[in-house]
Amino acid sequence: MNVEQLMQDLERKNPGEKEFLQAAHEVLVSIEDVYNANPQFEKASIIERLLEPDRTFVFRVAWVDDSGKVQVNRGYRVQYNNAIGPYKGGIRFHPSVNLSSLKFLGFEQTFKNALTTLPMGGGKGGSDFSPKGKSDGEIMRFCQAFVTELWRELGPDRDVPAGDIGVGAREVGYMFGMYKKLAREHTGTYTGKGLTFGGSRLRPEATGFGALYFVEQMCKAHNIDLKGKTVAVSGFGNVAWGATLKATELGAKVVAISGPDGYIYDADGINTPEKIAYMVELRTSGNDVVAPYATKYPNAKFYAGKKPWECKVDIALPCAIQNEMNLEDAKTLKANGVTLVAEVSNMGCTADAVDFFIENKMLFAPGKAVNAGGVACSGLEMTQNAMHISWTNEEVDKWLHQIMNDIHSQCVASGKDGKYINYVKGANIAGFLKVAQAILAQGVI
Ligand code: 2IT
Description:
By secondary structure, the protein is an alpha/beta fold. Helix content is about 50%, strand content about 15%. It folds into two domains: about 5-185, Leucine Dehydrogenase, chain A, domain 1 (Rossmann fold), CATH 3.40.50; about 205-370, NAD(P)-binding Rossmann-like Domain (Rossmann fold, 3-Layer(aba) Sandwich), CATH 3.40.50.720. It is built from 17 helices and 14 strands. A hairpin with a 2-residue loop joins strand 13 (about 415) and strand 14. Helix 1 runs antiparallel to helix 2 and helix 8 (about 205-220) crosses helix 9 (about 240-250).
C-alpha cells in the first residue's frame, strides 16, 4: 500500500469530501505496516474496496411545514460495508450533513462495529434538515417523508438505522412507525426504539456509559484514579448526558458542558440528579442553547461563543460533533495539564490535534473505540428483537461493560508502542483486520 498514491486517487474520485478524506487518511496511516506485511490484502485490493462504499442513496425529501409551505431537504443513506453483518449505523439530522460527512461516518462505523465483536456492518444516513425550532408535527412529517423514500432499502437483516445528532427516541419512533406501516412487519429495523415497542433498556445511556467504561479502563491501564478528577464535556445532548451521569457515578466531577451558543462552567459540578436532568430539559426545549443553565444555577458561569477546552480540567471529553477540538485546543489542554482526552463524538478532533496528542505521548483515544457502546447496545437491541425477548438493565449493562473492556484490550494489543499505548493505531488495526479478513473470505463481490 502506498498511502500517498491512495490519497491522490481518493481525492480525485471524491473531490472536496474533506471529512471522508480525513477519516480515510487516519486509517491508512495506522494500518500501513500491517497491510504491507500481509500480501494477500494487496492482491485482493482490500483497501481499494474499503475506500468505496457498497452503495449510497441520495434522495429528495419534500414535506409540508406548519404554515402550509412545502419544504425540500436532501436525504441520504450510505450502506458502507456489510462484510461482517447487516449495515448498521445512525441517522443524523443536522444542517452540516452532506455526502462527505456521511461517508466518513459510514467508514468509521464499519471499523467501530467490528470492534464491538457483534455481527454488524457499517452504514450511516441522514439529512441536512435542522430540527432546531421545528414543531412536533413538522418533525413527524419530515421523518415520515424520509422513510417513505428509504424504507425499501432497510430491514432487520439488511440495514438497521438508529439515532445520531438530531435524532433521538422521538424521531426513531416516527421513522419506525412509518417503516412498520409500509413494510407490514414489526421487526428490529431501527434501534433506539421506545421501550414499549422493542427498544432496549439502557440504549439512551449506552454511548455515554460505554465511553466512561472505556475511560475507566484507560485510567486503570495507567494507574490513574478516576475518582475526584474534573471533567470538561462538550455538547449537552444525549451522549453528553450519558457521559455526565456515568462520570458522576464513578466519582469524577463534570464542571463544563457546551452548546452552539458557548459553554457553562459550574465549579460545584454538574453532579446532582436535578442538574443532570436539566440537561435533558435544555435539549428537549429545541432551542439548542445552554446559556439558561447559568440563570437557573447562578453559581455557574456562561462563556458566550467559547469552547470548554479552555477550562483547566483533568479529563476532556468531546461529545458534540466532528472536528470540535483543533490543534490550538489541544495545545491549551496540554498547557493546562490535562491527563486524558477521549473522543466521544465521531472524529471529534482535527487530524493535527490527534497528531499533537500522539507526538506528545498524551493519553488519547479515538471515537471509534470510545463511543462504540452506543452501537453495541443497538446490536444487543437487534438480538433481543430477533429473540422476541427483552433483557433487564443489569443484563444489558453487563454486556456493555464487557464489550467496552474488550475493545480496550483490543486497542492495547494492537496499539502498544513501547510503553505508550497508541489507541488510534490500536483501534484502526483491530477494526480493519476483522473487516479485511471477512472481505477476503467472501470472494470478489
Ligand atoms: O455513531 C454511532 O455509533 C451512532 N450514532 C449509533 C449507531 C447505532 O446504530 O446505534
